[in-house]
Amino acid sequence: DQQVKQNSPSLSVQEGRISILNCDYTNSMFDYFLWYKKYPAEGPTFLISISSIKDKNEDGRFTVFLNKSAKHLSLHIVPSQPGDSAVYFCAASDLLRGADGLTFGKGTHLIIQP
Amino acid sequence: NAGVTQTPKFQVLKTGQSMTLQCAQDMNHEYMSWYRQDPGMGLRLIHYSVGAGITDQGEVPNGYNVSRSTTEDFPLRLLSAAPSQTSVYFCASRGTVQETQYFGPGTRLLVL
Fold this sequence. Notes:
The complex is a heterodimer of chains A (114) and B (112).
Chain A: E1 4-5, E2 10-14, E3 19-25, E4 32-38, E5 45-51, E6 56-59, E7 62-67, E8 72-77, E9 86-93, E10 103-104, E11 108-113
Parallel strand pairs in A: 2-11
Antiparallel strand pairs in A: 1-3, 3-8, 4-5, 4-9, 6-7, 7-8, 9-10, 9-11
Chain B: E1 4-7, E2 10-13, E3 19-25, E4 31-37, E5 43-51, E6 54-57, E7 64-66, E8 76-78, E9 87-94, E10 102-103, E11 107-111
Parallel strand pairs in B: 2-11
Antiparallel strand pairs in B: 1-3, 3-8, 4-5, 4-9, 5-6, 7-8, 9-10, 9-11
């Protein structure tokens, strides 16, 4: 059973508009969440993270929101740029277990249209 | 600073052959891990290591062996390759528990 779910396999957004990528999780032990961006033929690169003690974290054009009661997080990209076209993975971990690695969602392919 | 490096970039194997996927990092990270990514799937953890001499299984460990004799290297061995192991393999490393994982560029493996 998937513990981290990204229900939209793809998302198309016009350049300059806001991109919103969603992620749901089921494991209440998760307390650290990350977004990774992946271009074809490259490894994932870290984008932004949030711990469960916060409900929002911003880094430039990227903001992650966490709703613990709903077990939901979202990544907002404003404004969207052509270089943002990539696959975005939501990932979660349990800091208590730490080294057990990350649990990933299946990814959302974001396409920024000119 | 090379970060996380993986070799080879691409490999074709016949069913039953064995091979080792290499992973090295130069960031003095204690934690290293191996993931595989299949079409339409997220990355799934195969094995991980919290330091030299210590390894443990992840979500999908069957058919793979690992060892960690040095901090820098974390090779992944396929003992007897099967078509189900056709995938893209990513190695990752991180420092402390709170730090993010850095991924290598991946090894594309095709098992015929």
